[in-house]
Batch of 2 targets.
Target 1
Amino acid sequence: MKIPRFTYHRPATEEEALAMLTEFGEDAKVLAGGQSLIPLMALRLSRPAHLIDIGGLRELAAIRERSGTVSVGAAVRHVEVERSALVARAAPLAAAAMPHIGHGAIRNRGTACGSLAHADPAAELPAVALAAGASFVVRRASGERTVPASEFFLGYLTCDMGPDELLVEWRLPTWPVTAGWSVQEVSRRHGDFALLGMAAMIDTDPVGRISTAALSLFGAASTPIRVDAAEKLLTGEPPSAALFDEAAEIVKGQLDPPGDLHGTAAYRKHLGAVLTRRCLSEAAGRLGAAA
Amino acid sequence: MREGLAGKYVGAKVRRVEDRRLLTGRGRYIDDLNLPDMAHAAFLRSPYPHAHIRRVDIDSARRMAGVFLVLTGADMARLTNPFLGMMALDGLYDPVFYALATDRVRVVGDPVAIVVAESRRVAEDACELIDVEYEPIAAIANMAQAMDPMRPPIWPRARSNVLWEDSQTYGDVEVAFAGADRVIRERFAQHRQSNQPMETRGSVAEIDPVSGELIFHSATQSAHSLKWSLAFLLERTSVWRSIRELATNREKPRKFVVGARAFIKSHPDLRTATKSSQPAMLKQLRREPKRIVHLSEALLGLLAKDPSRRPRVLAQDIGGAFGAKGLVPREDVALATAALQLGRSVKWIEDRNEHLMVGGQAREETLDIDVAVTSDGTILGLKVHMTMDVGAYPGFPFNGAFFAQMVKVMMPGPYRIGALRFDTTITASNKGTYVPYRGPWAAETWVRERMIDVVARELGIGRADIRLANMIGADELPAAMVTGPPLDVRMSARRTLEEALRVADFDSWDAIRDQARSEGRIVGMGLATFIEAAPGPPKFFDYISPGFSALAGVEPAHAVLEVDGSLSVITQQVPHGQGHETTLAQVAADELGVAVEAVRVRYGDSSITPFSLFGTGGSRSAAMAGGVVTVAAQELRQRVVDIASDLMEASTEDIVIEDGHIHVAGTPAIGVSFAEVAAEAVRRRPGSPSDGAIRVTSEWDGGAGGWAQATHVCWVEIDLDTGLVTIPRYVVVEDCGELINPAIVDGQIRGGVAQGIGAVLYERAAYDGDANFQAGTFMDFLIPTAMEIPDVEIHHLQTPSDIFANYRGVGEGGMIAAPAALTNAIEDALAHLGARITEQHLPPARILELAGVIEAEAPTEVGPPDYSAAAAVPAPRPSLIRERMPTLTPAQAQAVRRTATSVRSGARRFADRYAGRP
Ligand SMILES: Cc1cc2nc3c(=O)[nH]c(=O)nc-3n(C[C@H](O)[C@H](O)[C@H](O)COP(=O)(O)OP(=O)(O)OC[C@H]3O[C@@H](n4cnc5c(N)ncnc54)[C@H](O)[C@@H]3O)c2cc1C
């Protein structure tokens, strides 16, 4: 299939890009790496009249660390996040997710912010953002706002952004050095979107009891989701296999995932328990590893 | 090995000559072809699985800027002849239909209109402007629904969605079952799969601006079959016009008729076969009297047609087919018609979504099997009932029923099975067309090898022991399958099994598996042995369909010394990944004493290649083309030597050809070149230089033919948390006779194994319970990548023989055995959990269901009812055809008889063209 006719724009500055978004509104789409948008257009499922390519916006092309946050600009490709020493040190949960995203060729073009703005519930990075307490800097010509991850993902391929807004930055709080992390998923083939996946983080207090727990699932619902009940159970307890098993059962009980061609709902629920066990034991093994 | 055959190149891993072109992106696939002023086509397709078409409004599409032409089903009915089934099987309903849907759509993706425009994008835009009013009809999504008399028939004239029922008995089945200690029963279900080559279908219909001639560039497996099919289907002409044409120009059909007579005379068995199928043909005509009109129009039209109006088919590089491109796409007929109407070249490239929907699907078969055994594991006989879901539109010229016959004939495999009853039920559904897919009959191997494991388990006998006890050994050969085909002394399936058991160290396996289990690891190993008719014993196809060997059997080739001294082999094979440009050059180079680079293999152009309908398929090319090129090259060598001996005034016996140099034995300094011989040949025979200096045309019937065989051993490890299956080791022990190019043989085996693994663990052309297609992208239809496929360890055996051209095919075998070996391994791994593997598709969720880890969900694919229960309470199921035949008036009956006679003679004439010696 061929893409319907559209007008291609390549603004040189962010200001220009925002002006175009204001001008075209609903008729425009931001083009980042194109790894999700272009296939949708080729299947004629998305038909923007204008594409605004942000690939040339130099000011959005950096990964920076400032005042307790790691920030990833809108033009940063997956591969740059994957290879960044800064991300590996200060955002190890994000780093752990990167190899799971598609294949090398996709990571060479796709962007982290594109994945987040696209809000595919089966994608890794939205779940990472949710587990890590990340936030998003969203700009329009008339101003800027910052949205926490917990309020950003609204539904299937839907996030809290207007048609005239641009996601300019993904901000991750600098990793607490004592915390452990894990990203695991099950997919049918290497590089496929996950049937179910989990991004997990646990931290312990000085006496070795779990002080923070974040279990964030992807592929489980129309948005990434946290499992509060399991996180509560974990908090205040010393990590143990028995505790993780209990958490796993809670996760399984709380999930109401969709069934499809690749796996039934029962299968995905079961994977919820499996991934909880696997992620928690890996994360427990990494407690303090970022120090 | 035979001396002289095993020359310098045959048997060597010669680097593929096509690779330089293909690996540097300079292959010439259909989409690489861009002609001046070429237009582009797109198809509007049905979103409904089953619906009446009440109205098609093309006005706004036609008016859109950049649109040249819009055609619908009504135009096809006016401008083309319909597709007509050519399989005369008694009672089979074989429908009549057009390239574009006329009054109803029968599958999601059914083409409703073709739009030709200045670009593909504009054509797709215009498709969106076509307004079709559909009235949905209840759809048939599976075998159970097809057998439900409350559901509407997809083909109203069939009056049922059961298209064919048949029963065949070989040997004394009653005695076999009466003498059994036990009868073990199981049902096995193969899911809908799809060939999915890298290159989808696609064609360029080129119109020569001067002559108006149609040159059809296509990714086809058979250039001549496509050419004659198009000639048959295109440019509908009324009977009267054809007759007028024939009356005014009596010379025109003469060549045709003379050739047909000669062809039929030289194939007496074809004649008896046609005779025996006449009642079936008549029944078809009675059921659908309009067939006669269509057949007469098509056949007389073909006779009356000026040869320049027959298309020329050209195929160049083809990105795979696996069987699907041996059929004539309906889209090609619409495309060619559009080009002829416009007088302008038009390109259509099928996209992946279309190819997944309607490019061909395969293998949806359920087999109920009863095995009569003695308690020591001797298999006495089988009763098999196969139900095959052939989808909506039958393939042309091969429909599913043809492949059902192959499953039946191949059912005994290499085993001593003395009695077989084989029942066949063919059902229609609102799904994609059933096409042959790499070993289309492979259900027999999967079911037999799975069932042998079941019997072993039931009787408490080892899986290797029961195979060894029942498999035919060298000391029993020659023998024959109970279904007919002979097994010659080179049938070495049992040797491959014995060698595989040794390579795999089978005897220690049970201990290894149990040890792993005690460590919490779930591992399994599976065995499967098969034989493949590649090319099969002489006249193999007559066992499948009487008379078919005559149409398929003989392989032609030209060997040419060109006027400039270069050498060509011209083959009717249409390579699409098999590497014929290399292997056939190897064979010719050895015979001619030249370097492999000196032989050019030409193919794919129906105007220069020798005539055969078969094209490339059925794993036949090594044996058939390898054989005929040997014969042709030997004859060409003789002709070269004759002239060289004159030129050098030496006796022919003293002439040798080495490294392209022709000289007298012992005096290499004095000699002549091929160019000098060519010049001399031209001097002696002034003729058309396009025919070359010396042109040899040979035919080869396959000689003794024979079987290819192999045993596969597959090891699996299963993660019971996730249901994911990994394959740590995979062994193939095979015997395909002499290897022309071991690297190509290994590549064919590996590719086949990969597709077999894909079928079991990943690929499924899924529909929901309302026949809506679920797998329209590669995110839904999962093809394994290099990450999922293990290294395949291949061991070659060669049963010594001195027969001529002892080559046998390996194109399909990898895929025939892999599903059996893999599913057997999975059951071995999960047996202690009570898992029984009776379906072929085992995605991770299903593995966990079978292992009892998660709750099972109801499948969307429902098989046929339990035949055994039906048999216990015999439901009145009279043959649909006899029961509901429309009664004809005497006048109609008279018309039927009259036209039947003309059809018969027309068919004879048609056959001549097929013989069509220039
Ligand atoms: C074969 C394949 C496999 C894949 N597998 C995975 C996988 O396993 N996991 C995974 O997470 N992803 C996967 N992807 C998707 C990939 O990660 C995409 O790159 C990503 O989802 C989108 O990023 P992009 O830069 O390509 O965005 P684009 O495709 O350019 O845009 C996606 C959407 O986001 C919007 N958008 C992009 N950037 C911005 C912005 N700055 N502000 C506002 N809106 C914006 C666009 O308008 C569009 O609607 C896969 C893709 C393919 C083709």
Note: The radius of gyration of chain B is 28 Å.
Target 2
Amino acid sequence: MATKILIPTPLRGYTDQLDEVEAEGATVGELLSDLTTRYADLRKHLYAEDGTRRNFVNIYLNDDDIRYLEKDQTPVTADDTLSIIPSVAGGAWS
Amino acid sequence: MTPHAQVVLPAAVLGELLAHARRAVPNECCGLLIGVTSPTVALSSIDERAVDIQIESSAPARNLRLSPTRYLIDPADHFAAIRTARARGRTVVGGYHSHPSGPPDASTTDHRDASDAAFIYLIVSPGTGAVKAWRLAAGRLGELTIRIVPDRECQTGVPDASDSPTRPAP
Ligand SMILES: [Zn+2]
């Protein structure tokens, strides 16, 4: 069962420039695991060395941030769309 | 610095960015930039090939840091901008933020937090109206040339271009 994953502009360099890819899994966590197996370069951008997801990576299932659902355990179907939204940050001097 | 890369910025969008920056003083404002990058294929690596980034509209975002020296774009606003862009056949080509009390030069924080080369960072100074564009090249943010154009010159050859009004600031 393949679920659509939308890739944001800053991460397309790791998905052969595709803005939309598919991955398999029954939960958000499984989907992301399959995604980063297919696109290995993406892994180090989404996960720290200890395997935890970087906190500047936001994951939306359809319209909702998965932090307000069941996080990585959130079930997914083929009709769902997962979106990866990187945090954009910075600032002024110092 | 990639001398051939150029950011095309409609004067009206610059006006919106500066207005947003002035409303946010003393804090930094931030938001997303929607437009077209051409040719897309040239984005696979940062190099000397000509890459035009055409900005068509801006999407103001909440600054989750609410700070005069820091910004963090609310991911919900980023998500909304991505959806707006996709609905128009466009992409989020970059983000913008303001430096309320300094020049629009990329700071140490901006360098540290910058992500992939396909994303441009526009910085505006509300006091002087100055604007600069930056993009990651060889691990550092390099400045891009900005060409400010009257709106009617910002044509991409694709229907449903820049005639949609941008949504007002939150
Ligand atoms: Zn900055």
Note: Residues 40-48, 157-170 of chain B have pLDDT under 50 and may be disordered.
